[in-house]
Amino acid sequence: MNPLRALAAVAAPFGIALSSAAPIDTGAALPAVTAKDQDGKDVKLAEAASGWTLVYFYPKADTPGCTKQSCSLRDSFATLTEKKVRVFGVSLDDVAAQKAFQEKYKLPFTLLADKDGKVADAFGVPHSMGFAKRQAFLFKDGKLVWRDLSASTDQQAADVLKEIGE
Q1: What is the pLDDT of residues 6-47, one digit of tens each?
Q2: Which of 1, 52, 114, 134 is disulfide-compatible with 119, CB 3.0–4.6 A?
Q3: What is d(CA 149, CA 155) in angstroms, rounded to the nearest whole number?
Q4: Is residue 87 within a helix (H) or strand (E), and if so which, with residue range?
C-alpha cells in the first residue's frame, strides 16, 4: 500500500484529510472545477482556457512565503497582462481570508478559496491539515504546458515569464 494512503486512512477518523493524488501531466486539460473567488463569486476555471492561464497554489494566505510568491506575480502583473496571462491563486483558505490577503497586498488577480480541497485535488496538489503544497501550473489554450511542483516564492513571476518566452 502507498504510505501516504496508509497515513490518510489512519488520519481520517480524526478529521484530518491528506491528499495523495498525482499531479496532472503536461498536455492535460485545465481541470473543470469551480471555486469561490475572494468576492464570493463562482469561478469556473475551464472558462479561462483560452490563451495563457497560470494557476498557482500556496499553503496559506498572508504567510511569509505565500506573500513573496503572490507579490512576485503582483509586481510583474503588467508584463504578465501584456503577455495575456490570466493569473489565479489558490489556497485552502476561506473567502474572507482570500479577500483580506488580496486587499492587504493589493493583488490584482483572482484568488480562489479552496476550503474543501477540490481544486487542489483536481490538479493533484498535495494538501493536509488546511495547507496546500506550493505548486504552479501554466496552461496554453487549455492544455498544461509547464508545471513547477516545487514552486518558487519570490521568483514565481520570473519562472513563468521565462517559460512563455519573455
Answers
A1: 444 444 444 445 555 688 999 999 999 999 999 999 999 998
A2: 114
A3: 14
A4: strand 85-91
pLDDT digit string (tens) for 70-85? 999 999 999 999 999 9
Active site residue 71: no
Pairing, β 110-113 against β 127-128: unpaired
Note whether 61 and 138 are within 8 A (CB).
no
Catalytic residue among 66, 85, 111, 132: 66
Q: What's the pLDDT at 39?
A: 97
Q: Distances from the Cα of 16 to the Cαs of 2, 21, 37, 95, 144, in angstroms?
A: 17, 16, 24, 21, 30
Number of residues written out for the chain: 166
Q: Assess contact for 86 and 52: CB atoms under 8 A.
A: yes
Domains and CATH numbers, the chain: 50-164 (3.40.30.10)
